[in-house]
Amino acid sequence: MLSQSMTDALNKQINWEMYSSNLYLQMSSWCAFKGLDGCAEFLNEHANEERMHMQKLLAYVNETGGLAILGQIDAPPTQFESVKDVFEKTFHHEQLVTAKINELVHQASTEKDYATLQFLQWYVAEQHQEEFLFKSILDKIEMIGTQGQGIFFIDREVGQMLTQKTQESTAMTTAQNGDVGTA
Ligand code: FEO
User: Fold this and answer.
1) pLDDT tens-digit profile of 142-153?
2) Within a domain: residue 146?
3) Residues 78-130: pLDDT tens digits?
């Protein structure tokens, strides 16, 4: 059973995840507008992942006797200076989300809410992966450069990262299903 303070904190995180989803969807739209189809697809898929993060939290709150609440969500920014600006903002946003998850972990630990502490471990690992992912895109942008055909190659690289991610996730699902089948 969740305390009211833990329920409130998890509901705030639901809001953050929905904002993240809208932010990445808006960034995807900006990229599509600029003809950056690889980046647009990548960010659209990431917006879907953020929605999944929100739904996972929502299900947990409801399963543990709390009322999950969808609050008002701020509108994301609509204009960006460049593709580098977009991915710098995604990286900084993920660092902010990591700080929010860390605060939740601290609260669950302080309240001796070990079920929530355990539940949040998935988000701790996910944030590590997401910061790594966006940092690696920024590193690529730095390496390739945005002059001349640089933008074309960056867009292609980011689009390929999505394909690679999809293949890895399909392989993981297949392996998991295989494990179930042989258990
Ligand atoms: Fe759900 Fe990218 O944080």
Assistant:
1) 999 988 899 999
2) yes
3) 999 999 999 999 999 999 999 999 999 999 999 999 999 999 999 999 999 99
What is the rounded CA–CA span in Å between residue 20 and residue 24? 6
Look at 135 and 164; give whichever has higher pLDDT: 135
**Tokens 């917006």 belong to which residue?**
47
Helix-strand-coil split of the chain, %, nearest 5: 80, 0, 20
User: Within a domain: residue 107?
Assistant: yes
DSSP-derived letter for residue 49 is: H
Quote the number of domains for the chain. Answer: 1
Ligand 1 atom nearest residue 93's Cα: 2
Which protein residue has the closest C-alpha to ligand 1 atom 2?
94
Residues whose beta carbon lies within 6 Å of some atom of ligand 1? 17, 20, 50, 53, 94, 97, 130
Question: What is the span of the domain harbouring residue 158?
Answer: 4-73+81-169
Q: What is the CATH number of the domain that holds 101?
A: 1.20.1260.10
